[in-house]
Design brief:
By secondary structure, this protein is of the alpha/beta class. It has one domain (3-259): TIM Barrel (Alpha-Beta Barrel), CATH 3.20.20.370. Helices cover 35% and strands 16% of the residues. It is built from eight helices and twelve strands. The protein has helices spanning 27-39, 47-54, 75-87, 120-128, 148-166, 182-191, 224-231, 245-259, and strands spanning 3-4, 6-9, 11-12, 24-25, 43-44, 64-71, 92-95, 132-135, 172-174, 195-200, 204-205, 213-217. Strands 2, 5, 6, 7, 8, 9, 10 and 12 form an eight-stranded parallel β-sheet that branches. Helix 2 (47-54) links the parallel strand 5 (43-44) and strand 6 (64-71). Helix 5 packs parallel to helix 6. The two termini are 24 Å apart. GO terms for molecular function: hydrolase activity, acting on carbon-nitrogen (but not peptide) bonds. Pfam families: Polysacc_deac_1 (PF01522). Residues 63-270 form the NodB homology domain. Its main location: secreted.
Length: 270
């Protein structure tokens, strides 16, 4: 493995709510992006193969990509999974477990604004289809601003909820908003997650930390030219990444706001 694009999607829909629209791609755009991956000669491999390579196992094959999806929106079941199944492609979907609900019930256990989310029956079906189900905390709290007891609930609690529902271990985690810190990464490792995806908007490399895997976030403003650059390995940065001064400053500011009871979120600063 030299470098590989690990693509981060959220919602794939023609009609997202306004708050989610910037992080949503239309189904025809998603299909076109998969076509570009295929036309570029890249094979889509499971995240687990990347994680194995980062832990010192066999390297990834040359010219490959990884597909990941954050939060657990219902359109993953109705739109994304059929597209992936038709093409025989693997993917990992990271669930905010507090937003997953019983069939027929309403989601309400997370900080995500109201929108259709996966239910546990759909999650079981996706798992049976061979798609990897990972964790994304319980409530989608920015973990690097959480106090130790709340951090443990978010990281360990989501793992227990997920494994109880699936009936088998879950090992892949993704940080809400991409936010993490040394303390967060230690808690993730202590809980038994063997990988954790960040953002970074950079290509992943063989030197990536398995607990801060670099990903490229696909937005509704991602142009075909930018996507082509990513899959032809022309992204501007390659992991591993160090925290910049801007990242550290933004984390300190958000922690202060959280302590004052006026938390702020937003996209990760790098």
């Amino acid at each position: 493995m030299s470098v590989a694009p690990v693509l981060l999607y959220h919602s794939v829909s023609d009609d997202p709510p306004p708050w989610l629209a910037p992080y949503t791609v239309a189904p025809h755009t998603f299909r076109a992006q998969l076509d570009r991956i295929q036309d570029a000669g890249l094979s889509v491999v499971p995240l687990a193969r990347l994680v194995t390579a980062l832990h010192g196992g066999p390297p990834l094959p040359a010219h490959c990509a990884v597909l990941t999806f954050d939060d657990g929106y219902a359109d993953f079941y109705w739109t994304v999974a059929p597209i992936l199944s038709d093409r025989g492609l693997p993917a990992t979907v990271y669930l905010t477990t507090g937003a997953v609900h019983a069939p027929g019930a309403l989601p309400g256990g997370s900080l995500l604004p109201p929108t259709p989310m996966l239910n546990w029956r759909q999650v079981a079906t996706l798992d049976a289809l061979g798609l990897e189900i990972g964790g994304h905390s319980r409530t989608h709290l920015p973990l690097d601003t959480a106090r130790p007891d709340r951090l443990r609930q978010e990281v360990t609690g989501s793992k227990h909820e997920l494994e109880d529902a699936l009936g088998h271990p879950a090992t892949a985690f993704a940080y809400p908003h991409g936010y993490h810190s040394p303390a967060v990464r230690r808690e993730v490792a202590r809980a038994g997650w063997t990988s954790a995806a960040a953002v970074g908007n950079a290509l992943s490399s063989a030197a990536d930390d398995p607990l801060r895997i670099c990903r490229l976030m696909v937005l509704n403003t991602t142009t075909p030219r930018t996507f082509e650059d990513w899959i032809h390995l022309r992204a501007t940065r390659t992991g591993p990444l160090r925290d910049s001064a801007a990242t550290l400053g933004w984390r300190a500011y958000r922690r202060l706001r959280a302590r004052l009871g006026r938390p702020t979120g937003g996209p990760p600063r790098q």
